[in-house]
Every structure is written in structure tokens, then in C-alpha cells.
Amino acid sequence: MGKALASPAPEDAPAPPDGGCSGLRAAGAAVLTWLTRWGAGAAARPAAEPTMGPSSPSRKKCASCGFFVEEFGRGTRGVQLCRSCIRQEDEERLAPFTSEERAGLDLVSSVLEGVSWRYWKPGEQPAELLDWLYLGDLREVLDVELLASKGITAVLNLINWWELTALLPEDTDLSYIFSTRDVLYKEVDSEDRLFYKMVENCWPAAEAFLQRCRDEGRRVIVNCAAGHNRSACICVCWFLVREKMTLLAALEHVQQRRGTIISNHGFRLQLVRLALELHRLGEPSGVAGKMRSESIDDADAGAAEGHLMQRIISSKRFSAKYSENSQNFSEVASATRRLSVRVRAKKGGSISDKVQGLVSQRKLSMELLACLVHWNKSFLADYVYTSTPPTVVGSGFSGDVVLCRRKNTSEDDVRALRCVKRFYHGNMIPDHLEKLMNEAVIYLSLEHPLIARLFDVYEDEEETSLVMQYCAGGTLEDMLDTSGPFSEGEFQNHAVQMLRVVNYIHRAGFVHRDIKPRNWVYEADKSRVKLIDFGFSVKRLLASDGDGSGGGGLTGCMGTLGYLAPEVVHDRLDTGYTEKCDIWSLGVVFFELFSGEHAFQRERGTCDGYTQEVTLREIEEVTEEALEKLLRRVPAGEAARAFLRRMLTKDPTQRPSAQELLEDPYLAEARATLRKPSRALSPTEVLRRFRSYGEASAPTRASMLAMARSPTRLPWSQFVELRTTFDLVDSKDLTGVVNLEAFLAVVAPGGGESEQREARRLWEAVCGEQESLSYCEFLAALLPRIEDAFEDTTPSEPKSPKEPTPVNHTRGPRSWDPSLPVSAYLTLLEPKRLGRKSVGDMIFDENTPMLDVVRVMIEMHFRWVVVRYRSGRHEFFDYMDINHRLVTVSQKLERGSRLASAMSTLSSMPVGVFANCSGYSKFVPVGASTPLRDILQLISGSGRGTGGKAEVHRVPIVNANGQVIEVFSCLSFLELAMRFRTPSAVLKSRGSRIFDSRDTILEASVQHDTTVLNGLQVLDAQHLTVCPVTSRELSGDLGGVAVVGVISVSDLKWVVHSGNFGILDSSITDFLTWRNEVSACSEAEMYSLRNQGRYKCVSVDAEESLYVLATKLLASRLQRIFLSSEEIARIVGIVSSRDILVEVYGELELQSSLMDEKFPRNGSHLSLSAAM
């Protein structure tokens, strides 16, 4: 077996071992035993059409469409979906398609979806597809007598080695076993994942092997775990490529003989593309309908296999991405997969489709969308109008622009004000819809301090709402009307600001096409002017190369009369133009700033059409003489006229760019003011904050970026300081983005080698492989440090199960055998940390004051202790119990009473009152001779009488005298699992996505602006030790939560220890600030704690395997860690070590029981001698 290429996605659950001849027979029998346990005996029923209500106990409701169906599988987030919705979900992830691919998928679906999952393995198996080609599964391949009876002398195995390691006994070598039987054996690693390139990666090797078998006259069987997806895909490829059948005919041929096949929609798409390339798609023959009818008539015959097929299809959809994976998804697959996490755009959505396109091209991140875009939601769900009727602050093509503010914000907070533009789809003509799409999507794509901020986009079936920054200073047009022409100094200051933003949008590839005084607005203090209204804007075609030449790719006479460039007016003849049209329009605006007059605008005559035509002709036919006459009306010196003359050059190829105008000597003085700001962060402080941001964990950085998009949480003076710092760094090139050279020019102007080296290091820590930082990214790095709730731990590699350590050889079992007594495994567990000598140090008398116990727990870093009662019984005590008791007492307090008095009373009570009052973990002692299996059953809730409840989280191990000698926890299980190949392989074959609860995690989170009591209630109700503190505004509606802090039951130890009970009556925000102060430690102490494996919180990406998740849990020694999603930069789950145990226990127990039945054990070693 070769090195693992990527994560396995098992089509089947574990199959037992093989050996030589008898070993193969034994293995086949063991697999058959397993199949019987999981599927046989159930009476099969034909698949029924979906209904709106349950008509039989076997029906389940689809979580997406709401129909009740008998055939269902789990969606990507674990919910039950019908076959149709599974297909829709997968194809949304695989998009985009061409129209031919879309049609091909529909045809393939008509063949494959027309057959019930219960129509599996009809007739004699393995399926004989040709007189020399068979299709089968692992069970059939391991049956030596079956292979001999068919004359099969070659095996093409598509199960990758990680799966085989989990399925078969350790050190099994199939290649050797088959060679002893004169069976030609070929192993081609593959994966049953949606995005795995089965045809590209596996077909060439498979084709060569199959051709060899045919040339040598061998009969060959192609197998994967279930003979359903991968092996069927390869067989269909053979018929399509080598037998020259059409795809639909090949599918029908294989399906007739094997039953339902290829539920992997990614494989279907690959086959469609191959068929289109070969021009062999074909037409359906109707055989699928006949097979469906036969499956109904013969339902009872395939009952066990059918139920098994449904379970396989459902479970295989949860695959893992290994840290060892050497193959990466393609750029397109990864991008579309990133988009599909939560965006479910409505059909024909005006903005949705555009946004999806930008995300798939990686020009817009899901991380940004997560807090800005809200699908199928009205803005009134989050905002309210500031008055009744709403206050109108402007107007547009869709109607009035009115004031609003976010719910639950103070009416006195001016910075909480927003303005909203609502677009009712039913009242909009197509041109206006296009304008709306442009405006929203371009706003989402741009970040600049001189562009009015777009805070939220709401879209449902009836309307779209854009919630914008409210600039209270009025428009530039208003300023001209009230104050008249600008002085030269005022003009230069405005010119630099306006050219900076135009230069930025041009470099970003956009052309505004409607620059005029009304589209520039002031902040309240009128110190800054910002660009708005991108409705006519467009992405510049690359063909123009920005040279300003005619025919540059832009067409359409768009904009406002009087500000149109000559080439735009001339474009009525479809000659094309470039971004240089904006320079002309800005030049006209600059003329008005100087003169207070319009350059090309006339009073309307009796015929508006005539007046408009005269103005257009005047612009289009303007001459140099006319322009000079115009410039003589400018009441300024020749330098100002020369500057305007450059902008109002009729020939766009001679017209300068915004960058060139910014470098004009006329603006040098105004440009210099940017390099001498009145207030900005010092270089030292910039480096300090970059260092802090670079060291922050991924979830914290994501939250800070979300905060930078909406910086109204900062005091105005602090925000201005950050924005001015950006201006300072941007002043070097005025491009609107920060690159390394500009950064070094500010933070390391002296150019010292060590100074430059340190600055470069900090830049790389923040930017990674990025060449530059956007405005919001730069602001995020400069935000005042917030609590980094998450710490990234890089644990040392666990001891390799392939090369057992001396401890494995001499002090414990060499292979996984949970039937052995737990005492055999205790020696493999790491010595307890922090110098604890014995469990006896953790036992307290029931009358010990709770305050004294907590102080010992803080000093010794205990998370739990044991309470001994006079009656002789014992119970566990941990911080969950303090929290539960406090919450219970709070429910009995009179209105107006405070938690502080309740906590003061509780702290002096004996610890015996608290022990396990939360029911979190019963004290259930077992002897050292108890099989490990029984302990795992007890913890996982799989034992008798547990009812599957999480009543036991740790199990005390006692000696013959009843003394506790060790406590076995879920972390102990993970520690053991990492030392053996079988459980390690199972962990590696499962993806963490199974714990993705992004749709419901808000219920297990605490809002930052709520009370401490509310947070404690959430922890108690959800039975959690820790939960995220979040903000609805920052989190958005795409699932998951942006984390601004973490609250834990262990925080109560600082309240008890300090005696500051009054802090419990404060807000969550104030509580977190206080906790961070009282729990702060020196860097040396923090380093020591990390060496001891003590972390506050750790996050793991949801795309990792359970193996990676387990290593993080072990390295951090935490009870729970957070599941994060890199796709949307949010926390999407909370996972405990017990959750992992429950998830994999069934598979581990199944393998162990099968090995007990089929493979005798010699001591603690698995013996294959009986099977050889």
C-alpha cells in the first residue's frame, strides 16, 4: 500500500480481516456477519413517492422540502434530506455548469434516480457486466470460493489504504494474500468525495490494468467498499471509452446488473463531461422505469441490501480532508464549494446571482458576505426608522432615501444612524434592476475611506434594501449652492480627496460613469467628501489596457447631462470609451468648484428634448478654443487652469489618469498634508498592533475584520486616528491599498537593517502571501487589541502507531483490543501534568466550604475534584455545578434582587451541596479489571440503562480496597486512540463537518450586550462548559457566529476567589473586561501554562478530520474546543472529546466484536495464524 493521497470517504462501514485462503473465507464471512447486523431481517418496501404527511413509520420528513419520504440521506450539515434535495444541494456545490452539462446531468438523473435504492444487487452477484468483467464489493472480493467459482483471477481494488487500515486487521497485506492464490492484484487509491477527480486520477491506471486483464484472458472484478460509486464509475468509463457505448446506455447496462449505482453527483458530472467530450451522451431507453417496477415487485428479496445501501449513501457523504492530504481541490471546485456553504440565492435574484459569480471568481469573500448580505430577509428585521413618517434625506430612481438606525441602539447615538434605499422589484423596470445590481455588487467589492460605506444588503422576493452610511454634511452640490466657489486651498484639498478615490476605483477595474457634485457627500464635520451612487458603474474590460484609446470596451451613453465626456456622447455611434471618461467628468466638477458655474448645462427651454440635444452636441463637438474660453472663466491662477486643462482634454488618449493628476505639482502642498497628520498612530504603536494582530488566532482576526467593516463600535476619536494612519501610509502612492514598500516607509523610515527585518516579519505575519492590504484589512490590524478567545496550539506529533514506542512493547497491548481490562491501558496514558501526585489530592470532605475548594482548584489547575460524603458515597464537583446552583437560585429571586447577594451566600456553603447538582457527570466507580469496552460504553451512553444520555463524562477506577487510583475520561480515550492504528484510521476517515451546527449555534451563544445571568443561563440550558460571545450585527445571516469573546463556567472561579460578586450583575462586555484583568498573568507564566498544555480556547477548521480535532483537544487539555469555518470565517460548532467518542464508538465496537468472533487472540496480540 502506498502513501495516503487524501482523506477516505467510506462507502461502507468496517469489514473484517483476511489472510490466506482460509483467511479470505473468514474475512468474507465476517463481512457478511456485519452486513446482516446492519441491514438484514428488515422487510423491504418499494420506494414511494413523496407525500406531505407520514403514512408509515419508515417515512421521514425532508428538512428542506418538507415532504415525507422513505429514501433519505444526510445533508452536508447532518439534516435528513430526500434524494431530490440531496441532488440539489450537491449540484449547487458543484456549480457552475454549462448548459450542455446541465442537460446531461438531468438525463443521467432520469436514469439513476428512477431506480429505488432498494434495487441493489439484483440476481447473482458479483455483477457480470461482460464475460470477463465483474463489478463487486469488498465482501465479494474477500470470498475466495466465490472468485474461484466465477473463474476470476484478477482484482482491481479502488479502496485507498486509509480505508483498508480501518476496515481490516493491522498489518494485513492484500497484495501478498492474493499473490498466494495466483490472483493478479492492482490497488488504485481513490476517494468517494464529491470533489474527488475520479476520472482524472483513477481511470488511466484502471484502464491500463483492465486492458492487461483482457489481453491475458483474465476475468477481473472491479471493487470498492460497497461496489456502488467508485467501482461503478470505472466500469461505466470502460463501456463509454473502450466499448464505445453512450453514457446513458452504459449506466443502464451496469444498473440492470448491479442495481442502484453512482449516488456521488460529482462522479456523475465527471462522466457527463467525458461523454460530451466523446460525443456519446445518448438518450434514455426507459429501462430504468422497468427496473423500478421490478424493484417494487421483488421488494422483499433485497430488503437487507436495500436498507444497507441507504445507510451507506447517507454516511459516505461525510468525508474528511486530511492534514496529510497531498492533493488539493482545483481552484474552481474550491471556490464554488466556498460559495455553497450557505448562499441559497432565490431563483432569478437580482443581486444573488451577481454575488455568486464574484465569490466563485474569488473577487468577493464569503467572510465579507457573512456580515453584509442577508438573503430572504427584510431590513426591518434589524432596523427601525428614526421617525414616523420616515425622515427623507435624499432621492433616487427607486424613490426616497430615508433615515434608519439598527434596533437596540441608542436614539442619541448619531453614529448609529444609517440611510436606507429600498427597491420594490414589482415597480422596477429592467434597466433599474440592472442599475441596482451594479450598485450593490460594486459597493460590496470596494473598500476605501472616501467611499460611503455599505453596511447591509437585504434581499427577498419583493424588495432589495441597501443600508448605507449616513453622511450628515450634505452633498457637494449643496455646498456650492450655499457657500459659492471654493478658494484655491479648499479646492486643492478637495481635489486630492476626490482624485484618491477615483484612482482607487480605476485601479480596482471599475468606471463610475456618473461623477457629479450630487454624488459627493460630506461627513458631519464637512472635513471629508465621499463618493456615492455606483448605479451606472461598470467593470472595465481588460482589452482597454487603460490607455484611454477609443474602442476601449465600454459602451452606452450613460451618466448625467452636462458631465458626460465627449467620447461617451460620441458613443451613440458605438465607438467605445474607457475609464478616462471619469477624468473628464471630474474636470467639469472641478470647474464648478472654482467658478460656481455649470460648464455644459443650459436652462431648459420649451422643449426639453431640444435643450438636451443642444447640450450633447456642444459636448461632442467641443473645440480647444471653446475649452480655453471656458477656462478663462476660472477665477484662479494659470497653474489651476493648466491643471483643469489636462483633465478637460478632448482626446482621451492624451487625458491623464487619476494617478498622474495626483502627482501634478499643483497638488503637491495638499498632498503633503497627508504625510503630516495632526493625529495618527506612532510607528511604534503600528508595529505593536501588527504584532498583536499577527499573533491572533484565525477566528479572532475574522471578528476584527468584521468590526473594521463596521467601526462605529470605536469612539470617534479612535476611529479617526486609525483612518488618518491609513491616509499616512497611503500617502506614498495614493492607490487606496497598502503594500509592503508603503508600510516600511512609515514604520521603518530610517532603513536600519534590523528595524526593516522586524517590520517585514510583522508584515508577513499579517499578510501571509498577500501583496497588499485593503483599507478594512489594514484597519483590522490596527484595531485596539480585543480578547483573543482562541489560541492556536500545534501539538507534537502523536506517537506513530506504525512504530510502537517501548511503552507499547513492554507495558501495554500492541493492538487495539477493548475487551482487555482497563488496567492494561492505564500505563499508556501520559503522566498527569502539573505535578499532581495522586488522585487523593483531588478528594475533599463534603463539609469543606466551596470557596476553599475553588481556591485549591485554581492553584492546582484542577477542572474537577471528588467530594467524599460521610455516608461513604462520592460525587464529582466542577464549575458546572456552581453555575447550575446559581442559575437555579436566580429563578427564585424577587424582582430587583441581585446575583451578588446570592453568590455571596453560595460561596460559604459546603461543597457537598454542589457536587453533581448539574447532573453533568455521575460518580460510577469500576474496578481495574473492567474491560475498556464497558467503560467506553458507560461514557458514550451506549451501556445498558443509560438511554444514550450524557450522564457520565469520567469514570473513576478503584482498586480492591475501593480507593480511586485513576480517573478515565474522554480525553483518556483519545490519548489511547492515537496510539493504535485501527482507531487512528477511523478518526482519520471521519470529517469534523459532522459537528457543524452553524444553523443553530446562535442558540448556544451569548450576545455581547446582554447580562452575565443570561450567559450563565445559556451555559446551563445547553449543558456547556464554554460558549461564544457574539454580535448579531457582526455575525450576519449566513450561519455561524463571529466571536468577540468567550464565557465559561470556569470564569466563576475568579468571582468566587476575588469576592467581587457584584460583577455578576454587569453586562457580558464589562464582565469579560474584568475577568481578563483578574486572570491576567505574565508572559513567563503564560509560556509555562502552554508548556503544561493549558489553553483558554482552541479552534479547529471544520474541514479537518476528527484525527486533527482530537490532536488539538489532547494538546490543549480542554474539555471542549470550537469548530471554525475558514469559508465564512465564523465559529460553526462546539465539540467535546465525548462527542468524538460517541461518533466513532459504534464503528470501533463493531470491528472489535467481529475480530473476537473470527480471529482468536493470543494474549494481547491479534493472531492471524488461525486465518492463514
From TrEMBL:
<dbReference type="InterPro" id="IPR020422">
    <property type="entry name" value="TYR_PHOSPHATASE_DUAL_dom"/>
</dbReference>
<keyword id="KW-0723">Serine/threonine-protein kinase</keyword>
<feature type="domain" description="Protein kinase">
    <location>
        <begin position="387"/>
        <end position="667"/>
    </location>
</feature>
<dbReference type="InterPro" id="IPR011009">
    <property type="entry name" value="Kinase-like_dom_sf"/>
</dbReference>
<dbReference type="InterPro" id="IPR000387">
    <property type="entry name" value="Tyr_Pase_dom"/>
</dbReference>
<keyword id="KW-0808">Transferase</keyword>
<protein>
    <recommendedName>
        <fullName>Protein kinase domain-containing protein</fullName>
    </recommendedName>
</protein>
<keyword id="KW-0547">Nucleotide-binding</keyword>
<keyword id="KW-0418">Kinase</keyword>
<dbReference type="Pfam" id="PF00782">
    <property type="entry name" value="DSPc"/>
</dbReference>
<dbReference type="Pfam" id="PF00069">
    <property type="entry name" value="Pkinase"/>
</dbReference>
<feature type="domain" description="Tyrosine specific protein phosphatases">
    <location>
        <begin position="193"/>
        <end position="264"/>
    </location>
</feature>
<feature type="region of interest" description="Disordered">
    <location>
        <begin position="791"/>
        <end position="815"/>
    </location>
</feature>
<feature type="domain" description="Tyrosine-protein phosphatase">
    <location>
        <begin position="125"/>
        <end position="280"/>
    </location>
</feature>
<feature type="region of interest" description="Disordered">
    <location>
        <begin position="1"/>
        <end position="21"/>
    </location>
</feature>
<dbReference type="InterPro" id="IPR000719">
    <property type="entry name" value="Prot_kinase_dom"/>
</dbReference>
<dbReference type="GO" id="GO:0005524">
    <property type="term" value="F:ATP binding"/>
</dbReference>
<dbReference type="InterPro" id="IPR029021">
    <property type="entry name" value="Prot-tyrosine_phosphatase-like"/>
</dbReference>
<dbReference type="InterPro" id="IPR050205">
    <property type="entry name" value="CDPK_Ser/Thr_kinases"/>
</dbReference>
<keyword id="KW-0067">ATP-binding</keyword>
<dbReference type="InterPro" id="IPR000340">
    <property type="entry name" value="Dual-sp_phosphatase_cat-dom"/>
</dbReference>
<dbReference type="GO" id="GO:0004674">
    <property type="term" value="F:protein serine/threonine kinase activity"/>
</dbReference>
<feature type="compositionally biased region" description="Low complexity">
    <location>
        <begin position="1"/>
        <end position="10"/>
    </location>
</feature>
<dbReference type="InterPro" id="IPR046342">
    <property type="entry name" value="CBS_dom_sf"/>
</dbReference>
